[in-house]
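User: Could you walk me through two proteins back to back? I'd like the raw sequence and the structure tokens for each, with a short line separating them so I can tell where one ends and the next begins.

Assistant: Of course. Protein one, sequence then structure:
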Amino acid sequence: MKAFRTGLVVGKFSPLHLGHELLIRRAMEACGETIIISYSLPELQGCEPWKREQWLRARFPQARVLVLDGERHALPHNDADALAQREFVGRLCVDVLGTTVDAVFTSEDYGDGFAAELTRYFARRACAEAKRDAGVRAFAVAQGCALAAVQHVCVDQARKAVPASGTLVRSDPHAHRAFLSPEVYSSFVQTVCFLGGESSGKTTMAAAMAARMETVWAAEYGRELWMEQGGRLAYADMARIAETQQRREDSQRLQARRYLFCDTSALTTLFYSGEMFGRAEPALERMAQRRYDHVFLCAPDFDFVQDGTRREAEFRQRQHSWYLAELARREISHVLLEGPLQRRIATVLQCLRC
């Protein structure tokens, strides 16, 4: 049997680091239900509400998660006094979540005061509701029946188990990635996509940059499937290629360090779907909208290499023109890579480090 019915953990979680995760796991071990509330005003860079909710739901799918957005909710400022913060959390529990809690879990010395204020707040609300719903007599009875006190459970206040803080990790998530789970760290990985026609150096660039930056890259699945099927692709393969490519990117992002380099994107598959079949599935159209932090277009400015799997040089030029028009139409900022390999690498490095 669990020690508490409902436990509460509140924080900015900007970002969610392993110290937070230890706190939440302790709450889940001790409580039948665990509520996690996250808010921040102002928001902290790289830790937007949708990211925090994604992190918390990925790491703690069994918990009840409430992440608030300052653009849609009236939040107390991070510098507001303690009473305002505690009453705000109490209102969230009662008015938004429809519950009270038995325990609050923190790693801070303010935890006892937090628990005491929640106890008072829940008692005041219970009395007010009794008076409104059942009359003065029931109100007098409610006043005489004090609610059980909310307990404070302190976890690793000295930061011995996990010597981390949100401020430390935010200062350089890459240097402190050991304090982040892969699901959280991947949000700080920048995606770099190489586009271009056949034999324009996309694969060479993706592999070379991954080696240079000591990270991983996502190889082109469409080419692998084309070779596996003996140079034959069906219309149904188009959406499959894009979906598999994006799953590969998502998987590799969990292994990446600072950057993930991508050999093509669903935009490439969209081109081939239109070229080969004159149409594209709506699902493929949606996948082609995925955005990358950096996009580089490889120019067809060196001799075309026919390896037995490619079309002709004129087709490569037509592809290049399509990319230029499509990137402009979609308002996707990109950098053109020209010249030999080392010049292209230098251009990418300059863009990534600017």
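----
Protein two, same layout:
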Amino acid sequence: MDMQRIWILLGKEARLGATNFMGIYVLVMPVIISLLIALVFGDLLAQTPRLGVFDAGGNERFLQPLIDHPSMNTTVYNSDAALQADVTRGAAEVGLSLPVGFSEALESGSEDVEFTTYRWGEAGTRSLMLLESTLARALAEGSVGRGFEELPVSVNAEQLGSANTATWSQRLLPLILIMAIMLGGLFIPAFSLIEERQKRTLVAVTTTPTSLLDVYLSKALLGFLLSGIMSVIILLLNRAFAGQLGLLLVVIALGALMSSVIGIILGSVAKDMDTFMGIIKALGIVLYAPGILRIFPQAPEWIGRLFPTYYVMNPLLEVSQNGARFADIVVDIAVLAAIIAALLFILSRVIGHQQQQLALGG
């Protein structure tokens, strides 16, 4: 291994990658997708706020404006139990349980009247603001001649279901982060290696004092650097580059190393680009499953732990978003280190096999 040759080869790889369409594509796509999610999808994926109502009787005049409201969906339930069940599972984001004669008592203002509201733990801030402001306006309009401070109303508020108010940008961040780590670190070295083998330039290079190990290390180093840089960019774009900086960079480095080693291995075993893309399609679910599962909070976390990229994604999110320390993520780091060690062992066998083929003129 010669570090000077490796740096020379790295410079060549960087220049070729900068002018290669596929290289530009895999680097730019995570950034574009992240910006689209942050700027567009937050509103695009926002659903119409959902209100559920149980009327114990005699409150039609109060309810009708809520039912007719154009900016929300209102469902009337036959029982308080049915209303609570739907709020718990998210079919309704806010539930309103009205006692008998609530509307008349509100209009007369002769005595305080109580009612109960239920809030879904995962309801979005936008939906809650619209639903609660609409409800407050309906109460004010139903109580003739009174201001908000004088309303003869007592509210019993209950939260149902687990609390998770993550936005769509936050839910999709894990998937985008995995894409950033994998696309640059995996695709760039693999494409470069396959292209050199097809053009037989790999044979020409290894006939010089440059060894096959030097070539592989230069490609892996480029993938490592690109993967790390893209990870930092995605975290910065999503305002998630926080927590302990040193620990965050260590996790990014380990993820980038895993990604680049996988890229070199796949680039070595794939005969051509079509074969490589076929392998990537088959492995897609293995690579991206942890990020996809994070979109759905109800999905059990143990499923994500079955996939190797979870042990990159989870420590990054824990450190950047929850301020985790090394002791909090030591198990994930240990598993990630074991995965990398296994991949390096496989890579050493692959390099040995490739050297034998080159020696035989294959």
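The first helix runs from residue 3 to 18.

Let me know if you want the two compared in more detail.
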